[in-house]
Design goal:
alpha/beta; Rossmann fold; 6-stranded parallel sheet; 5-stranded parallel sheet
Length: 297
């Protein structure tokens, strides 16, 4: 009896729609697309008929036909768009001057996705943007609940100490599986997610959280990882993360990002005060087991 061959996992692709560009620029771009086939995510240039499915749209602002095409596409206002040699652009769009630095294209794409107004997700998760999570009434009485997901005990302990000093209540999980179990039982205000974890990595974990918790149940996910390349940042944005931070993270910057995601920063805990007690999970023991204005570049 023949043995069934394992099915290869689909490779995530960042889809580009390109209008205009000089012939030499097209050649350079196509060369980068070929090189990217060995990376994750790979780059893919869509046809004109598929342009509305693109994650990022590149428009040559010096090309009359390209500009005419863009003016007839109102959906561009809600997408990550790079205007080459443009003088002005809609909020959230990115301006790039010639000569375009094609070797840093992944960085340009990452910045466009971070600052863009669109939802820039992979085809597997192309859904309507989730509404902001509902916040409990009472404001000041609510202690923001943060779920830290990292397989390193040392990292979890460090983040717990750092965040509790800032007034957050912290629960930690050492795997995506355990984090999903916790999210099914409790409400959190934000998830801090590592990338490099066994079984399910942080990218897939973020995608699963965004797919399962939508509307009033949606929760922001902040990637906090040592993987800081432009392609890694693109993968995070395609997975649906709300912010992407690299380790070692500056505590002040982390505090600013969390305050933005949860709606307001909590009152810092006095140095001599006891740590706030987070609500305990229903099972015994801790929950542990195994961007937007126009920016020229």
């Amino acid at each position: 009896m023949p043995t069934a061959q394992p099915t290869a996992e689909p490779v995530a692709a960042l889809r580009l729609a390109v209008k205009g560009l000089k012939p030499i620029e097209r050649q350079l771009l196509e060369g980068l697309v070929k090189v990217s086939q060995r990376r994750t995510p790979r780059l893919e240039i869509l046809s004109d008929a598929q342009a509305q499915e693109a994650d990022v749209v590149m428009v040559d602002a010096r090309d009359a036909q390209a500009l005419g095409w863009a003016r007839q596409r109102p959906w561009l206002a809600h997408r990550a768009v790079i205007w080459i040699d443009g003088t002005e652009a809609a909020p959230g769009h990115t301006l790039v001057r010639r000569p375009v630095q094609w070797p840093i294209l992944p960085m340009l794409l990452a910045r466009a996705l971070e600052s863009g107004p669109g939802t820039a997700v992979s085809s597997a998760s192309a859904a309507a943007p989730a509404a902001a999570p509902a916040r409990p009434a009472g404001g000041s009485a609510h202690v923001p609940q943060i779920l830290v997901v990292d397989d390193s005990l040392a990292v979890r302990a460090h983040l717990r100490s750092l965040l509790e000093q800032r007034g957050y209540a912290v629960t930690d999980a050492d795997s995506v599986e355990v984090a999903l179990q916790g999210l099914a039982k409790r409400t959190f205000d934000c998830v801090l997610m590592d990338v490099l974890m066994p079984d399910i990595d942080g990218y897939e974990g973020c995608h699963l959280i965004k797919a399962r918790l939508r509307g009033a149940q949606a929760v922001p996910v902040v990637m906090l990882t040592s993987k800081g390349s432009p392609f890694d940042r693109i993968r995070g944005k395609m997975a649906g993360c709300d912010a992407y931070l690299t380790k070692p993270v500056d505590p002040e910057h982390l505090g600013e990002v969390l305050a933005q995601q949860v709606g307001a920063a909590p009152a810092p805990r006095p140095a001599n005060a006891a740590a706030p007690q987070a609500p305990q999970p229903s099972h015994p023991g801790p929950l542990v087991r195994r961007f937007a204005g126009t920016r020229p570049l």
